[in-house]
Amino acid sequence: MKKKRVGILCAVAAAAVIAAVCWRTLGQTGADGDGNVVYVNSVATLTGLGSGNGMINRFAGVVESQDTWSVQQNAEKTVREVLVSVGQEVTVGTPLFTYDTEKFQSDLAQAQLDLERIQNEISNMNAAISDLEKERKKADSASQATYTLQIQEQQLQVKQREFDAQSKQLEIDKLNENINNATVSSEIDGVVKSINNGNSTDMYGNGDNSFITVMKTGEFRIKGKMNEQNMGALSEGAQVVVHSRTEDGQTWKGTITRIDWDNPEANQNAMYSGSSDNMSSSNNYPFYVDLEDSTGLRMGQHVYLEMDYGQTEKKDGLWLDEYLIDMTDPENPFVWADNGNGRLEKRAVTLGGYDENMMQYEILDGLTVDDSVTFPEEGLEEGMPTAVSENGMMGQSNSENTDGEVPVTDGDMPVTDEGMTDGGDMSVTDEGTTDGSMSVTDVGTTDGGISGTDAGTADGGTVY
Q1: d(CA 309, CA 358)
Q2: d(Cα 374, Cα 360) in Å, to the nearest integer?
């Protein structure tokens, strides 16, 4: 339980730091021209009853088989025909490809002739030995020694040729085996993942050195990618929640069984804007998740993964993260909410139970899922204009930067992605401004960057 609490606290804290900078730097001037707009977010979104609150790191993953079977091409053989295609379903015994047997047939005919010649030579040698033994019996004692030597030489040659005959027979057996096994068939039920017919590319666009690889069907796992900047965010044995990308609310649960630290995959995008040298690049590490139940998943399906803090557990009532509730006076808690007319108001709320793992309070009265709220911070006043955030941001903005509260001047950059727990390549950078303004740049989101949407998260980014 403590692990869950610490983990989600870190996620919320990181998100709050980023949001605190962005709230003050990404705004627009309000309709009344006062330069301040308070961004609010819907309670439905913040409580997960909408599209998610974005406070938990997400990683992209793909459904793959628990097991694969690969066949290597015999370097001494030439493939005549490939009988399957990538993505095709196969069963045990399905022919995958055939070898060219023309050369084997020619070699077999020659080997059979060679064997026949050797056998004839052995027969002739044995006949000669028989004749020498007969002549030795008739010879005088002085000549018998000569005949004995000739017989021994012939016997030695017979042994050598008998060995040659055995070797030639093994060659013939091997040629027959190659001819009889010219067709290679699948040994498992599955889907053809890759065919190395010159492009060495599998069904997901990844390299594969096997000639043909078949993924076993019926037993799925998830392969995800974690950027080196969030190496501490995941661990083997950790529980995760798997989210469908296409169907809201559809989830699966699993356990991280392995993080492949030995095979990092180079991230081609620079960590910081404008930098492309090796010192600025980062690596992604693949990790694997075994599922409790894979019902409803399909091979090759892309999904999102996040640490399981209990966020998918269904609770009755409305539960709101505690950081959204002003508890300055514990007896009179309130939230800053949109009054329905584009203005900010203090809204008293009645609290119920408290979930210490998720750090949420149950809201008994004062707020509904149709309301919108913002983060309680200094400087908020009732009547300030509000705007519904489209990218998950909340809080006040001051595009004129005249109140002196923004701690950024002359190009300073107080917030970067160093040590970010989301592991992406997202950084908050000051692009050389001299007026203290800042801009948020998502650098290289295709390798795991933070984004207000799920764009560019195909290999392990954080999404909201």
Answers
A1: 7
A2: 16
Dihedral over Cα of 78, 83, 85, 91: its sign? negative
HEC string of 358-397?
CCEEEEEECCCCCCEEECCCCCCCCCCEEEECCCCCCEEE
User: Would you say residue 77 has pLDDT above 60?
Assistant: yes
pLDDT for 320-371, tens place per residue? 989 999 999 999 999 999 999 999 999 999 999 998 877 889 999 999 989 9
Nearest to 15 by CA among 54, 42, 72: 54
Distance CA 34, CA 248 (A): 39
How many residues are there in the chain? Answer: 464
Position 263 scores a pLDDT of: 83
Helices (H), 95-140: 102-138
Q: How far is CA 428 from CA 275, 329, 354, 417, 458, in A?
A: 15, 34, 34, 7, 22
**Chain-wide mean pLDDT for the chain?**
75
**Contact (Cβ atoms closer than 8 angstroms) between residue 381 and residue 38:** no
